[in-house]
Design a protein that fits this description.
With 128 residues, the chain is of the alpha+beta class. It is 33% helix and 28% strand. The protein has one domain. A hairpin with a 2-residue loop joins strand 2 (37-44) and strand 3. Helix 3 (79-86) crosses helix 4 (94-108).
Length: 128
Amino acid sequence: MAGDEEPETYDIESLEDIDALLGPGGREVTIHSEGGLTVLATLEEGSLVISGTDTDASSLFGEDVSEYEYSITVAPGDVPRVLDALDVAQDLDVLDALVLRGSDLVRIGEAGWLESIGVQAEFWSRIS
């Protein structure tokens, strides 16, 4: 999207409108898999959940840590903003868009990218 274009807006009046925009629920997609890091995305009750597992976490946290898990949850009302910022064809749902753009987001950091587009997401993590 060019800098001077107005972002697309969505007329959302109900949960059904959100579901239509998001695409079919119950589906989980892999948006990035490289080395020991696998990042998945799914929709849970309208919320977008991005979760990752790094089975080679010692390179990030030291040799005492073998695994790192995290989850980022985007509220249903913010999912259209995520879809718009992914800048993909209008006929794609948010999961398909993440399959196309997910590796780029993982490389720059999903939580930071969400913050940069004005989305406050819930974050959870665990190391072991």
